[in-house]
Amino acid sequence: MRRFNKIFTFLVFLFLYIPMILLVVSSFNQGTDMAVWKGFTFSQYGELFRDRSLLRLLGNSVLVAILSSLIATILGTMAALGIHAMRGRMRRIVLGVTNIPLTNPEIVTGVALALLFAFAGTMLKINSILGFWTLLIAHVTFNLPYVILSVMPKLVQMDPDLAEAAQDLGCTPFQAFTKVVIHEILPGIVSGALMAFTMSLDDFVISYFVTGSDFVTLPVEIYNYTKKPIQPKIYALFALMFGVILLLMVAMNLLQLRDLKRRRTKLTQRREPSR
Amino acid sequence: MAKELIRLTNLTMTFEDGETILKGINLYINDHEFLTLLGPSGCGKTTTLRMIGGFLTPTSGEILFDGQRINELPPHKRKINTVFQRYALFPHLDVYDNIAFGLRLAKLSEREIDERVMEMLDIVSLKGFENRKVTSLSGGQQQRVAIARALVNRPKVLLLDEPLGALDLRLRKDMQNELKRIQQAMGITFIYVTHDQEEALTMSDTIVVMDKGHIQQIGRPEDIYNEPKNAFVADFIGESNILDGIMRQDLLVEFFGRQFPCIDKGFARDEPVDVVIRPEDIDIVPADDGHLCGTVTAITFKGVHYDIIVDFKGFKWLIQSTDYQEVGSYIGIRLNPEDIHVMKKSEYSGMFGDYSSYSAEYDEIAEGGEDEE
Amino acid sequence: MKSKWLSGPYVIWMVLFTLIPLGIVFYFAFTDGAGQFTLANIQRLGAYLPILLRSAWMSIFSSILCLLIGYPVAYCMSKASPTRQKIYYMLIMLPMCLSFLLRTMAWVSLLEDTGIINNALRSLGLSPLPLIRNTGAVILGMVYNYLPFMIMPLYTVLIKIDRRLIEAAQDLGCNQVQVFTKVILPLSVPGIVSGITMVFVPAVSTFYISQKLGSPGAVLIGDVIESQFKGAYNPNLGAAMSLILMALIFLCVGLMNHFSGTDDEEGVATL
């Protein structure tokens, strides 16, 4: 039974990874058709780096991802602190609103924002309102709940006396936050920010509805690419992203592992006789 | 010596949900005093403490500190420090930085900070632990860091909210002595919150017994134990048999159809009263010599003594004695005038002091949960 | 207690960019192009009912498939050594961070009539199979894309189950199967609920997967909404469809939460 389960798990991972492996392999293929191997080459990578517009789109995506996750992290952390202090109905309502962008399908969020921006465009008499700013607003909007939901549990776990202890020892409420509370919830803030960043970097559906032709992000452009016969340099781009994200994840895991080991040695120290 | 430091007048507290926790507290606290707020969970003792610390603003009433009204003064501006129930040490700082936290905020020179932190580490016997992570310390050690962190700021008053609640029994006893020693060495006021009557009796100069948002009695530990004001206090502090009686005249009280000489006076003639008899004050004698006679229904070995339940005409008493009595045997008891304590009737009359539902775990009944508010 | 007001900017943001936009969707659904009140958009939805139902059953079917596939995987992950768990976790997270458009494209070239699988079949002398442009391919695409969203919450719930509960169950006489059906399965219900929600919602509203893998005639509700905004521009009809899609989702998610007894404060938040 256990062996069956292991084999099954292996097969599922194979299922998940075959298309990705195929894309990576295709990035080294001389031909344009994924299904036909025409020989090994690096030329797709050369093509990719010569394609200024594609790199600019990548830059656009990174810019929006950094800005929107930054704004969402600040607003979301403040919001989590506020919600944490709320009780009863007010708390339920705010948490309910927080859940809307999470439960709502992306297409509805995208359409709703597109309608809002179109409405705002006619009100403000701006012809093509869709672009960088509308994209940024949309990304902040769908990032906010992720930040809040990763900061909230840290606040709940935190000893509620810590902030009071800081004030008791002479901190103003603001100092109590910067000197004590932030250290406790930092892991939540960081993971919220990271999640927001990746969500934003990878978002297609919402971006697709709220951006115009002036400011396009990479996923939206990839969509346009996949409508035509696809250019293999896109595979090279995918392979690079695959590599970068894999490296980042491995690095993060190794850091965590080292941290864990250090903590474990601390625990053994504690058992030594003291005094 | 007895200079007044803190005064609470008509303090009330009603929370947002409409629950009234404090219903008019009047109390003054002297400089250098070790004062304990004692009561079951939900009695309002922690609320009172948090108001003195500045974490809650009273709904009405006044808090005076050195004659100044401090109702709305935020915690960081008060010369008061707190030792929290679960210590609330900052996990991201080591022992040294935890203790130095308040001094750094006060912008003292690093040299002075170092001197004072080291001095405090010595007082709480934690020399050599400065660079340890607080999370790597045992409960007792964390406790002492919390005390050092508060005391290093040289507050006028130290508030302690059930600081020993999380420690095991042995450590708790040690820390009780330690706390008393520190308080005397530093010469500052301690306001201590606990639900543990023994802790209160051991350490305090003054005990304030609270229940349901009211102060039930204020006094020295001996007075509280020997002269409880009502059935609640008598029951909460130690064990008590509480009986209905009638004060026939000064120095003479009647219960169980028999008149006993006592040492209380100042009651109206024939006034109904509560009579308290401590289980350890009762002398067991042969049935023929007893003022009252009854049948032993249960006996439990408690180490130093036996707990004996004796049925007197359907009312069960607890008697503590070093002598074994057979279950079913018919015995007598004698009561000396100083063993009988007479109290005025109160809202608590008839609620306590009957051991009919006695179980061997009666000690735990009064303690209940530790969390309140 | 004044720290409540820290969420002020957030609340304003959410009102402006979540609540008001939904209000506008309502407004568009009940007006015509000239801004006049009309029920015509809602009435026209009747014609799209088969599409809505098809979207619903295909995504429900995909969710169940994801659960059946994802549960053993999550279970296996939760039983692995801590280092292996980290690796598994990473392997599940990785696809979620990479363009789903390209990953779906890769499936196209696998399944196409001249794709890798059929080429392989041909070279083995077998006749090619119709693997693409049908319902099965769309369901495959849904399962492939959203399976990680099922495994994650299941795994999170499963690793939190206290080992002592399992020992207690064994102590009380459960065999391995009973331990699973009587303890582990009931305790993983919150993970199942949030996993199904996280698969169902994007699956029912998808438009890309069906465009690439489905047959051109059998569109899903997401395709129709997309085309109202990007193709045949009729935002009023599109808004009405969005509204009905939202209603469908809230109905399904609400029913599921109701019958599983989980309340949704943390329902979607297990990720």
At the first level of CATH, the class of the domain at 55-231 in chain A is Mainly Alpha
Q: How far is it from the N-terminal to the C-terminal residue of chain C, by CA?
A: 30 Å
What is the architecture of chain C at the second tier of CATH?
Orthogonal Bundle
Strand content of chain A: under 5%
Q: Pair with the most extensive interface?
A: A-C, 86 and 86 residues
Question: How would you sum up this structure, described in words?
Answer:
The complex is a heterotrimer of chains A (275), B (373) and C (271). By secondary structure, chain A is mainly alpha-helical. Chain A has a domain at 55-231: Orthogonal Bundle (MetI-like fold), CATH 1.10.3720.10. Helices cover 80% and strands 0% of the residues of chain A. Chain A has eleven helices and no strands. Chain A has helices at 2-26, 43-50, 52-85, 88-103, 106-124, 132-157, 161-168, 173-202, 205-210, 218-227, 233-271. Chain A is globular, with a radius of gyration of 24 Å. Residues 270-275 of chain A have low confidence and may be disordered. Chain B is of the alpha+beta class. Chain B has two domains: 4-223, 3-Layer(aba) Sandwich (Rossmann fold); 227-356, Beta Barrel (OB fold (Dihydrolipoamide Acetyltransferase, E2P)), CATH 2.40.50.140. Chain B contains nine helices and 20 strands. Chain B has helices at 45-53, 95-105, 110-123, 139-151, 169-186, 197-203, 221-226, 231-236, 362-365; strands spanning 4-14, 20-30, 34-38, 60-65, 68-69, 80-83, 157-161, 189-194, 206-211, 214-219, 241-249, 252-255, 258-261, 271-277, 283-286, 292-301, 306-312, 315-321, 330-334, 340-344. In chain B, the strands form four sheets. In chain B, strands 6-7-8-3-9-10 form a six-stranded mixed sheet, with helices on both faces. In chain B, strands 13-12-11-14-20 form a five-stranded antiparallel sheet. In chain B, strand 9 and strand 10 form a beta hairpin. In chain B, helix 2 packs across helix 3 and helix 2 (95-105) packs parallel to helix 4. The longest helix of chain B has 18 residues, at 169-186. Chain C has 271 residues and is an all-alpha fold. Chain C has one domain (48-260): MetI-like fold, CATH 1.10.3720. Chain C contains 13 helices and no strands. Chain C has helices spanning 8-29, 40-44, 49-79, 82-96, 100-111, 116-123, 135-160, 163-171, 176-187, 189-204, 208-213, 221-230, 235-260. The longest helix of chain C is centred in the first third of the chain and has 31 residues, at 49-79. Chain C is globular, with a radius of gyration of 22 Å. Chains A and C meet through helix 1, helix 3, helix 4, helix 5 and helix 6 of A and helix 1, helix 3, helix 4, helix 5 and helix 7 of C.
